[in-house]
């Protein structure tokens, strides 16, 4: 059976910067073929218009699908499932699917939809990315323009849940595998750090919180989380609401070519063979927690084993498997460490070599 296609769900209120983040992702996709499912609001078609015909090589018009019949979590059976089936039935199936929800969408019903029989064996939720308007939240609001959100709510005839914005925000945080505190260029360094720490304390254990300006995040940070969120719904506690909904998203910022990649760093750590792979995986997890590492991946040489051990870690979750013999490659452990700028490289290298 072919491997499941990974899908990333991008959620967050109107104006948080979802569309800008996705455009930046497309511009830096590194050859990955990405299909987009955009939950537009009514007849506006703003986000799809921004992304269609945008001149980005990996962004063909046929790879951008707009769902405009209302909030995506309220139209799962009628709109979302048939759309996914069409994407998955294509001969040129995408490498990755990115779904931008309406700003009013409850994330959990959408994630649960990936368990539907027609798609459950063919696609998986690689991760849920919640985009937060850092400036607005720091000022005690959930979005830059609450009036615009209320207007969208009132205009969506298909909305069947009346969720207060505070509860919807809690749902978006509860569902997240990664929280992107966007617009940090509008905050002071201490203010941005304090907000990120607060959101991390409110999220599930292991959820990554990263800061961004203009949605500029490296593709290797956003994609490849391997969360299989649809199989992990119990951990994503849903706030109880009356089913009613809120809006969509379009970033009022201009998608300028401002790439904040210098806010992230990566480096390679090498060490000798390890004797106990399980103990080493636990050691890696502890190092990740201690140094707030986003991703860690590479190959491990295990004493007495001809096969190399592939290791991939997202947050404190570490997955390993033996993939193939080393052959003529040196029998050494090589790990790539990825995180926000300012990692203590010497301490990390020492801790992984211990």
From TrEMBL:
<dbReference type="GO" id="GO:0005737">
    <property type="term" value="C:cytoplasm"/>
</dbReference>
<dbReference type="Pfam" id="PF07683">
    <property type="entry name" value="CobW_C"/>
</dbReference>
<dbReference type="GO" id="GO:0000166">
    <property type="term" value="F:nucleotide binding"/>
</dbReference>
<comment type="similarity">
    <text>Belongs to the SIMIBI class G3E GTPase family. ZNG1 subfamily.</text>
</comment>
<dbReference type="InterPro" id="IPR011629">
    <property type="entry name" value="CobW-like_C"/>
</dbReference>
<dbReference type="InterPro" id="IPR036627">
    <property type="entry name" value="CobW-likC_sf"/>
</dbReference>
<protein>
    <submittedName>
        <fullName>Cobalamin biosynthesis protein CobW</fullName>
    </submittedName>
</protein>
<dbReference type="InterPro" id="IPR003495">
    <property type="entry name" value="CobW/HypB/UreG_nucleotide-bd"/>
</dbReference>
<feature type="domain" description="CobW C-terminal">
    <location>
        <begin position="264"/>
        <end position="354"/>
    </location>
</feature>
<dbReference type="Pfam" id="PF02492">
    <property type="entry name" value="cobW"/>
</dbReference>
<keyword id="KW-0378">Hydrolase</keyword>
<dbReference type="InterPro" id="IPR012824">
    <property type="entry name" value="CobW"/>
</dbReference>
<feature type="region of interest" description="Disordered">
    <location>
        <begin position="232"/>
        <end position="260"/>
    </location>
</feature>
<comment type="function">
    <text>Zinc chaperone that directly transfers zinc cofactor to target proteins, thereby activating them. Zinc is transferred from the CXCC motif in the GTPase domain to the zinc binding site in target proteins in a process requiring GTP hydrolysis.</text>
</comment>
<keyword id="KW-0143">Chaperone</keyword>
<dbReference type="GO" id="GO:0009236">
    <property type="term" value="P:cobalamin biosynthetic process"/>
</dbReference>
<dbReference type="InterPro" id="IPR051316">
    <property type="entry name" value="Zinc-reg_GTPase_activator"/>
</dbReference>
<dbReference type="InterPro" id="IPR027417">
    <property type="entry name" value="P-loop_NTPase"/>
</dbReference>
<keyword id="KW-0547">Nucleotide-binding</keyword>
<dbReference type="GO" id="GO:0016787">
    <property type="term" value="F:hydrolase activity"/>
</dbReference>
């Amino acid at each position: 059976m072919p491997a499941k296609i990974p899908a990333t769900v991008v959620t967050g209120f109107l104006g948080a910067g979802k569309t800008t983040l996705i455009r930046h992702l497309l511009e830096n996709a590194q050859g990955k073929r990405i299909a987009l499912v955009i939950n537009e609001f009514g007849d506006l078609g703003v986000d799809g218009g921004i992304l269609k015909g945008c001149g980005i090589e990996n962004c063909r018009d046929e790879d951008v699908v707009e769902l405009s019949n209302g909030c995506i979590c309220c139209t799962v059976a009628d709109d979302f499932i048939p759309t996914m089936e069409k994407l998955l039935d294509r001969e040129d199936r995408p490498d990755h699917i990115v779904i931008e929800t309406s700003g009013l969408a409850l994330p959990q019903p959408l994630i649960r939809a990936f368990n539907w029989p027609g798609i459950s064996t063919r696609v998986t939720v690689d991760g849920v990315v919640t985009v937060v308007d850092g400036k607005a939240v720091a000022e005690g609001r959930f979005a830059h323009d609450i009036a615009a959100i209320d207007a969208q709510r009132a205009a969506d005839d298909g909305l069947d849940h009346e969720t207060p914005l505070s509860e919807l925000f809690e749902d978006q945080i509860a569902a997240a595998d990664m929280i992107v505190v966007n617009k940090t260029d509008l905050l002071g360094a201490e203010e941005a750090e304090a907000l990120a720490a607060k959101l991390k304390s409110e999220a599930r254990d292991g959820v990554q919180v990263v800061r961004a300006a203009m949605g500029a995040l490296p593709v290797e940070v956003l994609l490849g989380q391997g969360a299989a969120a649809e199989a992990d719904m119990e951990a994503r506690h849903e706030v109880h609401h009356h089913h009613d909904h809120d809006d969509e998203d379009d970033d009022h910022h201009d998608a300028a070519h401002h790439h904040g990649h210098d806010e992230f760093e990566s480096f390679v750590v090498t060490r000798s063979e390890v004797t106990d792979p399980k103990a080493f995986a636990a050691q890696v997890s502890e190092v990740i927690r201690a140094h707030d590492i986003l991703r860690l991946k590479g190959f491990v040489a295990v004493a007495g084993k001809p096969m190399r051990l592939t290791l991939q870690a997202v947050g404190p979750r570490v997955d390993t498997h033996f993939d193939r013999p080393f052959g003529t490659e040196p029998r050494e452990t090589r790990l790539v460490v990825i995180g926000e700028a300012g990692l203590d490289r010497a301490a990390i290298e020492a801790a992984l070599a211990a």
